[in-house]
Predict the 3D structure of the following.
Amino acid sequence: MALNIETFSNAKGGNAFFKAIGHPLAARKAADLLADLKAAPVAIYDPLGFAKAFAEIYDLGDLDIAAVYVQDLEEIGSDILGRQAQPVTDLAAAPATKVFITAFDAERLADHIRHLLPAGAEVVTLDALRLPDSMLTNRRNYLDSLNFATNLVFFREGEGHHTRLATANYWSAYGAKAPSAWCCLMNEAGEPLAEWQDALPGANASVVIDSKEVRERFGLDSFTGSLFLHVCGIAGHDIVKYALDTYGDDDEVLSCTHDANSWPADLYGGLPAPKDGEQVLLWVQNSHPATVPAGSVGLNLMGNDAIAWLDDDIPPFGTRAIDTAALLPEAKWPQQIEVQAGKYFVRPRYEVIANGATNPPRRRIAHANVERVDLKPDPRIPELANLLGKGFVLPAPILPRARFRSIALPTPMSTCQQNLPVALLAYDPEGREIGVKRLGKLPRDHATSVDVGELLNGEGLALGEEDWGHMELVYDFAEGGEADGWLHGLFRYEDKASGHIAETSFGAHVFNTVMTYKGEPQSYAGRPPGLSTRLFLSFGPAPYAPLCHLIYPASAPWHEKSRTNLMLHDANGSLIAEHEVRIACGGSLLWRPSDYFSEADIAAAGPEGYVIIRDVTCRLFGYHGLTNGEKAFSFDHMFGF
């Protein structure tokens, strides 16, 4: 049973209403609101169509609802909360002592119907759930998306494991005057452990929230759960982006992932099945102040309609680890698992535990991706090569082959993808093609992974002295097939010496062409095409060293070399040093800050310092991670702002 709420539209963006009613502070006020409404017969006036969504999150079954009224003539007679909607002009006849207006900023809406109220009736509105004005950017429009820049963070502390969120105050760079971060830490049962609000530092200054410091600050025991993060008083950008490192007391504990994508979806894909000796845990973070009923979250093999449902409730804001083997015991890598999420939770992380290899066992954390339900095959995509060249490109690193195995797994990521017509292309750092693997028209239920090292060795090709480069998944219609532009893949990196593994997944885009098609090349600020770069490379606590792989993908020929500026900042956002690098079109660069900045400059930046990767001539795609010598490493794709 899925929630019938709109969380995100690819046409309109995120829906602030579900965030407004589901905020932890609003949820506390909702209990009093509902208790007040239960005390008397109530008429519901639903002028903006929010009543159904509100009832998805809060149980209205105990209310004595006399009738439901609407303003829109087209809604008259429709079923709203089990009642036939009536015109609001009939409100005066309602046998009710309270009128509940299911809207925020409802003062004018109430004034419009005050002459229609039943005699002696009291007006109650959703404004009873409003956050304090001090937390708002736009006080005149409560459902402005800038008022609800929120996200959930998987947060764990204890038993040798720590989590560390890193981002920067990019909102002040857009003009925010005094932004702050309101945080609520909740345990696995969804119970609040700590709550605080801190002012953000100056424009572009580093923002770090470390579980060890939070535990010490509030005197907490070990915990695993959700950190609800609300950045208040923002400007320019309503998305909270962050990198999340998981590190430990043991040198071999190291992994990373990134922001959770704050809009719960119906489906998620790209969850890998376990290899022999592995356990795959899906971490579900209930994103709402409502229980996820048993039988609402399920897993199935991609392309298989047989769904195994979780036979347990998940409490409001609760966190639950689901062992995929408990629901799908026969699933084995490289099969993929589809997550039936029902809009109950944001993009989930998963944790792979390699039992028996080391003590303690090595772990890695990555995330599944949103599986689109609104797409259809686009017959024009195969015809665009004359104008868009390679068209949609999904780039990923090939790490140094002497040490690492680099593995690619195409992952279906929309419900219309019944086949994946793809090829894998390999390039050296200078952008020269050194290998091709045509995968044909893969079925939706495929289990086809590609070890890039075996591909290159099998063709007798070498990357050269660097021993690294990058790969690209692209559409290949030689055997037919359909495409929708939502091509995704999972990329796994295995350290041959230590056995440590990291993995990441992402989707394809059109890169570095002035021609546009359906919003591509994507632009984060302004209209497409997006032809510039601003990426964030965070540092980490000692003894970890940052690592970065920049790729210059091009759907069609673009500038021969990039003009990429690496700008080293300290925790206050002050520029310490900068260095320009030139990356070949279609090539890549694997580097560490120590390659270009002195020890003194890196020390001045400190563990909360960072590098901004800026290029105004082309769009780069980046991957970042941390290394702990040869004991462990982490790897994920980067974010920009």
Observations:
- The longest strand covers residues 433-443.
- The chain has a mean pLDDT of 94.
- Residues 24-38 form the longest helix (15 residues).
